Amino acid sequence: MIKLYHCADARSFRVLWALEELGLPYELEVIPFPPRFRVEGYKELNPLGTVPACFIDGALMTESAAIPHVLATKFGPSDLAVAADEPDYAAYMNFLFMGEATLTFPQTIHLRYTRLEPPERRVEQAAEDYALWFGARLRAAETMLQGEFACAGRFTMADISLGYAVMLAQAIGLEEQVTPGMADYLKRLSQRDGFQRAKAAQGSGAIAS
Question: Are residues 98 and 42 part of one domain?
Fold first, then answer.
C-alpha cells in the first residue's frame, strides 16, 4: 500500500512521476501548498510539514530524491534504478541526490524570498544571489551528463530527480538560468508517458498558488 500526499508541481512530483513510471498502484491526496499552514492536522502525519509525505507499507518517507529509488528497488527489480554492481552506480547515486541537495535547495531560497514571504519580508538580493548560485550549479551538472540521460545509457530515477529541478526552475521564474541544453533535456523527459500521466494525475494547479 502506497499513499502520497502531494502539492501540484512541488517536489513531491518526483514521487508521483516515479510511481507512474513504475506502474505501481497508489493512493494520491493532492493538497494545497504549503501544507503545514493550509492543511489542518498535516504535521501529525508528517512532522516536517513538507511534501512529499509518502507512506510505503505504513512507513513514512519525506525525501523526494530518496523515495523514487526506494520504490524502484523495493518493488523491482527495475531498470529505473542502477544496481550496485553496474559501472554507473556511483554516477546514478550522485545525480539522484544532486537533483535535490545541490539544485533544488538554492531554488527554494529564491522561491521563498520572491513569492512565499509577505512583501515586507522579501529580500531581492538574496533571491538574486541564489538564482545565480542555482544557475552555476546547473551548468556544472550539465557537463556531467552522459549523453541523452544522466547516466547508465538509459532513463533512471536520477533523471527524475535532476529533471524535476529543471522543471521547477522554469516554474518559478528561473528560466534565464536554464541553458538550452538542459531545457532540451527536460523537454525529452516530459514527453515520456510516465511524466504525462503524473501531470494528469495531479490535475491543474501550480506550486505557491
Answer: no
